[in-house]
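Fresh eyes needed here. Kindly weigh in on this sequence plus structure tokens:
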Amino acid sequence: MPTIKILPDQLTVQVKPYTTLLKAVFMAGINLPQFCGRNSSCTTCRVRLREGKQNLSLPLLQEQEVLTESGIYQTHRLACQAKIVGDVVVERPT
């Protein structure tokens, strides 16, 4: 089963494959904001990718557009959209 390490909290959670980053963060006991209702129309649930970018599902067009408009496409993912397929390390906003 894949693991997600969440910084700066230093929490690690083991999840089933294809669990969203958002659900994994909630499983770790962290309340990550998500104002658009998981529609990938805002960036409140964004997380910075530290390791394992290749272990996430590919971003869909709407997520790509929102991240590109925000100037963070190369370094971040929307936790509500990205699904975990292998080990990842992410950093949530503080």
Q: What stands out?
A: The domain at 3-91 is CATH 3.10.20.30 (Ubiquitin-like (UB roll)). The beta strands are 3-7, 11-14, 19-20, 46-51, 76-78, 83-84, 88-91. The longest strand covers residues 46-51. The first helix runs from residue 21 to 27.
